[in-house]
Amino acid sequence: MARVPGKAAKVNKYHQVENVCIESGMLSLIVDGKSIQRELKKLSPLLAAATEADQKGFEVSPSGYGIHWPLLDEDISIDGLLGIVHGPSASKKSA
Q1: pLDDT score, position 1
Q2: CATH for 17-82, among 1.20.1730.10, 3.20.20.140, 3.30.2020.40, 3.40.190.150?
Q3: How confident is the model at residue 12, as a pLDDT?
Q4: Is the pLDDT of residue 82 over 80?
């Protein structure tokens, strides 16, 4: 599919992610209208040990697929936070 100059490509939304916050060792956010809280040390020892400034340096993917900390090279998937596991697609064929 060719991209039309001046028009942004449509992004499929996996989740609506809002109000991401890290305080007192807890990651808090709202996903698809549901409040989620998780301990950082259980999610990512790297994030738990990071400075407050580094913890706040995150980006939520436009699709709502995950949260990325570029300076730490760390990612957390929203599906993982929600406990959603995806199996291999029935339409995929292996060699």
Answers
A1: 47
A2: 3.30.2020.40
A3: 79
A4: yes
